[in-house]
């Protein structure tokens, strides 16, 4: 089951409509038929007040920030239902787990030699 954490605590997030965002998220999840697949959890302060509202999706480890009420159905449809990130709203894109890279070898097929730097 996916878990979606919404920052609803602190002083800033309530002013930036985080509770309304959470309610819209729950409604959109119901409309998409994902009630048994996605759990929405209200959370205290993430400490990211200047980019609120904030949402964290597990198990993917994706942060969404600076989104509006109009973006919520897009996140539900694109990410939670169709497994595609809404890239324009992803915060910390460098923390996403990259696909495994192939180990690069020199073009001539020779092996690389590690040099011992201790002297």
Query: What is the radius of gyration?
Result: 20 Å
Total domain modules: 1
Encode the helix/strand succession as letters.
Answer: EHHEEEHE
Low-confidence spans: pLDDT under 50, at least 5 residues? 97-117
What portion of the residues fall into strands of 2 or more residues? Answer: 15-25%
What does the average pLDDT come to?
82
CATH topology: Glutaredoxin
Count of beta strands: 5
Which geometry do the CA atoms define?
A: globular
Neighbour order of strands in the largest sheet: 2-1-3-4-5
Describe the model:
The protein is α+β, with helices and mostly antiparallel strands and 119 residues long. Helix 2 (18-31) packs across helix 3 (72-81). Residues 97-117 have low confidence and may be disordered. The radius of gyration is 20 Å and the shape is globular. The termini are far apart. The protein has one domain (2-95): Glutaredoxin (3-Layer(aba) Sandwich), CATH 3.40.30. The chain contains three helices and five strands.
Secondary-structure map with pairings?
Elements: E1 2-7, H1 12-15, H2 18-31, E2 38-43, E3 54-58, E4 62-65, H3 72-81, E5 90-91
Parallel strand pairs: 1-2
Antiparallel strand pairs: 1-3, 3-4, 4-5
Helix pairs in contact: 2-3
Can you tag this structure with a few keywords?
Glutaredoxin, alpha+beta, 5-stranded mixed β-sheet, 119 residues, 3 helices
In short, what is this structure?
The protein is an alpha+beta fold.
């Amino acid at each position: 089951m996916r878990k979606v954490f919404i920052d609803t605590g602190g002083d800033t997030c309530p002013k930036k409509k985080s509770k309304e965002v959470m309610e819209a998220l729950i409604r959109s999840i119901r409309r998409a038929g994902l009630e048994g697949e996605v759990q929405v959890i209200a959370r205290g302060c993430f400490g990211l007040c200047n980019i609120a509202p904030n949402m964290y999706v597990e198990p993917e480890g994706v942060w969404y920030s600076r989104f509006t009420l109009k973006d919520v159905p897009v996140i539900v449809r694109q990410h939670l239902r169709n497994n595609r990130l809404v890239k324009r709203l992803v915060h910390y894109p460098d923390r996403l787990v990259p696909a495994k890279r192939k180990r690069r070898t020199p073009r001539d097929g020779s092996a690389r030699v590690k040099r011992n730097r201790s002297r």
